[in-house]
Write a structure and sequence with these properties.
- The chain is of the alpha+beta class.
- The protein has a domain of 61 residues.
- It is 14% helix and 15% strand.
- Strands 1-2 form a two-stranded antiparallel sheet. A two-stranded antiparallel sheet has the order 3-4.
């Protein structure tokens, strides 16, 4: 009696891996200058020097980093936390 061959494609899990958006566009609240930056994945960025006016941006109260305060996309740890349903997350530990 023959056994059916396994089809590796049929036995694979669907690709549900979450893709992290690595870039965020920071908008300076002082001058409106926008700059797209690649976010660090292994550290927290508390300060950002605006390339338009030189203003040093700091996180707003309740935010963990400048990307979460002024960026179009939150930092990678927050992206992951939101995708997994965690409410209280921070890139700073």
């Amino acid at each position: 009696m023959e056994t059916p061959e396994k089809n590796p494609e049929k036995n694979q899990e669907p690709d549900t891996a979450f893709k992290i958006e690595p870039a965020s566009t920071i908008t300076c609240p002082e001058c409106g200058h926008q700059e797209t930056e690649t976010m660090p994945t292994d550290s927290c960025q508390w300060f950002y020097d605006c390339k338009g006016c030189g203003e040093v941006l700091k996180p707003l109260p309740g935010d963990c980093c400048v990307y979460c305060s002024y960026g179009t996309v939150p930092c990678p740890p927050i992206q992951i936390a939101r995708a997994s349903g965690e409410a209280d997350a921070s890139c700073c530990g």
